[in-house]
Amino acid sequence: MRKRAREYANIESVISEGVEIKGDITSQSSVRLDGKVDGKIQIKGDLIVGEKGYIKGEVKATNLMLAGKIEGNAAALGRFEITAVGKMFGDVTCNLLTIEEGGQLDGTTKMLRDKDKPELDRAKISKKN
Fold first, then answer.
1. Residues 67-84 pLDDT 10s
2. What percent of the chain has pLDDT over 90?
3. What is the rounded CA–CA span in Å between residue 41 and residue 47?
4. What is the C-alpha to C-alpha distance for residues 119 and 129, in angstroms, rounded to an integer?
5. Sign of dihedral through CA atoms 97, 99, 103, 106?
6. Where are the strands (E) in the chain, listed by range?
């Protein structure tokens, strides 16, 4: 089996290991997360969650690569990739899902069809009351 090359846009923002954020994050460009976030994340670009990265909350990105841990639902318009050390605890909606041997997914998956893509693009992450 031929392995596909991973393509992620240039990372413009980094949340380093040791940084903890309680609150929502919105970005118009790609982000790498090696710290901890307790809140919703909405990225109009790629999101890379490093091995030390941890998210507790809902996540929405164009493409998502998970080597850390997410506890909450996640949506990716394009590719959602769980590496061999990645852990996903929640439901996943995406166009293309890849899970390397050893990667964990505990939740349901919904694969987007072409007609579903505009719906996800317009979808907003629900606000906490």
1. 999 999 999 999 999 999
2. 77
3. 9
4. 24
5. positive
6. 11-15, 20-22, 25-27, 30-33, 36-38, 41-43, 46-49, 54-56, 59-61, 63-66, 69-71, 74-82, 87-89, 92-99, 104-106, 109-111
